Amino acid sequence: MDPRGRQVSVERWGVYELALDGPAAGNPYRDVPLRAEFQHRNRVVPVDGFYDGAGCYRIRFMPDAEGEWRYVTRSTASQLDGRRGTFTCTPPAPGNHGPVRVAGPRTFAYADGTRYLPLGTTCYHWNHLDDLDREEETLRVLADAPFTKVRMCLLPTGGMDPPRLAFAGDSPETLDTTRFNPAFWRHFERRLRDLLALGIEADVILFHPYDEGRWCLDRMSPEEDRFLLRYAMARLAAYRHVWWSLSNEYDFNTHKTVADWDDLGRFVQRHDPYQRLRSIHNGTRMYTYERIYDFGRRWITHQSIQHWDARLTARWRDACPKPVVIDEIGYEGTAERRWGNLTGRTLLRQLWHAAVEGGYVTHGEAYPDAGRDGTTWISRGGRLHGESVPRIAFLRRVLEEAPADLVAARREGTYRLEFTGAAQPAYRDVELPDGGDYRIELIDTWNMTAAELPDGPHRGRVRVELKGRTDMALRIRRVA
Amino acid sequence: MDPRGRQVSVERWGVYELALDGPAAGNPYRDVPLRAEFQHRNRVVPVDGFYDGAGCYRIRFMPDAEGEWRYVTRSTASQLDGRRGTFTCTPPAPGNHGPVRVAGPRTFAYADGTRYLPLGTTCYHWNHLDDLDREEETLRVLADAPFTKVRMCLLPTGGMDPPRLAFAGDSPETLDTTRFNPAFWRHFERRLRDLLALGIEADVILFHPYDEGRWCLDRMSPEEDRFLLRYAMARLAAYRHVWWSLSNEYDFNTHKTVADWDDLGRFVQRHDPYQRLRSIHNGTRMYTYERIYDFGRRWITHQSIQHWDARLTARWRDACPKPVVIDEIGYEGTAERRWGNLTGRTLLRQLWHAAVEGGYVTHGEAYPDAGRDGTTWISRGGRLHGESVPRIAFLRRVLEEAPADLVAARREGTYRLEFTGAAQPAYRDVELPDGGDYRIELIDTWNMTAAELPDGPHRGRVRVELKGRTDMALRIRRVA
Fold this sequence. Notes:
5-stranded parallel β-sheet; homodimer; 10 helices; Immunoglobulin-like; alpha/beta; 480 residues; TIM Barrel
């Protein structure tokens, strides 16, 4: 901090924040534009500021290059205009690898090149609660869990009575879509920072169709949608671990068309200074994979799919050269609804089916928490009860030890994962690529064991006895 | 028999057969046309005859009405032309319900109105063997099994060396597509009659793509195809339990187009006097259900689908008003190939998923028979080793006790089957239609038990405790 209380340095990919006093009268959210231009050498990055209530304005910025940065503010309010300053961007602290980017047609990586595996989980409204103990518990559970991403909503469902809303007002009658509630956002950001500290990406779901006509946030005008998106980006985009999921189950929203979603997606693409990852997630169109969404659209960075069958991964992968993340495939649990009663084995199997084809499946759990109010992990976070989680941790270790692009490695003949799923073959005849020596391990994905086949290394055709066991994987590595 | 050895009577839907001596020189299969017109009252049915070798010609006919029939033969060979006779069609014997027909958009029935449930199995070449003991064993196994249909091929695969071929010749070099081998057909017919005696329909697969360029029967000219089809119909169509499956996995055959298959399907439609059931079965096009085949074509009587996921049944059912029969979904077994290593539980689950939506799944088994040559039920018949068969018998009893059209019954609110599949819900809340009293039974599809819920009959909303068990069905019947 400098003598005026301003930050004088920030690590690379950290958040530089500038607070300014400005007008509090009228509706500053709507009526007082504020932005800043951040400059590093000859590159200028324009960034929106935001009104944080009580006469306080803020500008948040994530510098992506080390060295000196300078900035100047722009506003129609004279108090906020032409403010200048400098700060130093220092090397990232250990554990800070920068934002996640798409690194290839099937892979993600952090900005520093470190590989990123999107093994997500789903806690739609874990941080919209009045129950801070449960929010803290969710964080403790996540700290011990294998997940590297959380899907979480910005807006409440029709059935919720949250303590705070993104917009001003505390009831459907008093909700005001021309103003925001800074207290909501400050709490949301606190939880984002908690996730960041855990090394977990936040896949923020901007809209969803579960409003039930109560808050009517699923049927706002395009202007209202953009007003919300711009505020959300001004506040949240500087956090390097934020992703944008335009909508959950977009096609359940009868108030918007695909053209509307494309408009909103392009709006985010235009205004996000950092080009965070962007996608959109379908509800119904699962029978016809071609129409889940046209993931080829330029504003979309990766395929965020809902489908019940991860065996289609290769199809989606080959249809569009963007990473496949099946963000919903059904949840482990005992819920009555069809989406929430997979066995742990079935869910784990889906993760493996996707993984061997270079795709990823997001976890979710719907065991009503008997010790609590009967709500579930996917809805409110809390404790995990399922059988899949430790096995997902095992899968994560297997994938961390594997090449980042399994499909490319298979084509090159250097490495291969195969998976039997629900099948119970007596054996599998493995055809090893010509001219190579290979080690073969038999992995029991459920019991989390790996055993190398004797008499290796192997060449040519090898019969691997599976003895009719399900959920077995083969790990095949070239050694020469 | 009359004094000249001719049949004087035949039961309704039985086979009337006329044998005639005729020319044996040259190539009578190709060069001697023979047909007959069978007349009942003022209705005339034209029927092709066929050459059966050694100067013997035959005409087979299935009368569909009781009373006196007369016939007259037509041929360019004077010996075979203008032969006349009469016979009496008597009432069908017990157990003879006539041919199976499509009875509605989701149902089949025998000609006498008796319901038919297509619970098929697959034994592609069980009756092409030199091993008559094994053929007889297959028949004994089928007699005790719950199956009502067998899918079986007319033509050999490239890997087979069958003792007899449909065409003349006994090797690829000597095979002659202008002549047939009556010994092959007589054996094939013997086995058809054995199935008929067991009350099992024969879904005869006319072409398949497994020739591997050896016999080249998958790449004959349209004229050769039609020559074969016409002979097959002349010999086999009179058997009331024969169905025509134009091809297995038609799209694996690169020598024929969909237009070719449509031409052949229409050819069968035009020449089959009895309009036996006709369909065609796909190999690859499983990702895009719209393109499996256009089952709306007029020559197709029912949808014969290959797909791995019976949960799509409602989709196919609603896309085309013809019964859905998933004739291939993978086989129970421990084969290495992906199509042959389902667990019994997985296969059974698929049958239930289809059944509750008004569709049917054909069984198959690929446990290499260790006591034999290592071949499997789907390939050569023999013994059954799997766990699904007794449970399919249980499903059959459930379906026999249910309305023929489960979908219509559900819409009417009189009867409903629900199935949980691989899900493990703690409970299911059943919404009973207004104003009715219902009995609810909980069926364990794997353990083959059914238990009525206490305190019935029920009304309104009923919570059924499932306790997280998979593969449970609910049977809900209106009692008032």
